[in-house]
Amino acid sequence: MTLLFSASTFVCRTNFHRMRLLPNTALRSLPFLLTALLLCGSSLLPSQAHAQQTLDRIAAVVGDEIVLTSEVDQMVKRQVQRGQQSYSNDLWMQALQDLVDQKILAEKARRDTTLTISDQQVSAQLDLQIQRMAKRAGGEEELERIYGKSILEIKETFRSDFRSQLLAQRLRQRRMQKVEITPSEVRQFFQEIPQDSLPTLPKTVRLSHIVRYPQATNEAKQQARQLISTVRDSIVNGGASFEDMASQFSDHTSTASSGGSLGDVNLDQLVPEFAAVATRTPVGEISQVFYNESQEGFHILRVNSRSGSTVNLNHILIKVGPGGTNEKEIKSFLRTVRDSIVHQGMSFELMARRHSEEDRSSQNGGRVTDPQSGTRDLVMDALNPSWRRTIRNLETDEISQPTQVKLLNGDQAYHIVRVDRRTPSHRVNLEMDYERIRQLALQDKRNQKMREWVSQLRDEVYVDIRVDEDDLSALRSMR
Question: Domain check: are 208 and 222 in the same one?
Answer without folding.
Answer: no
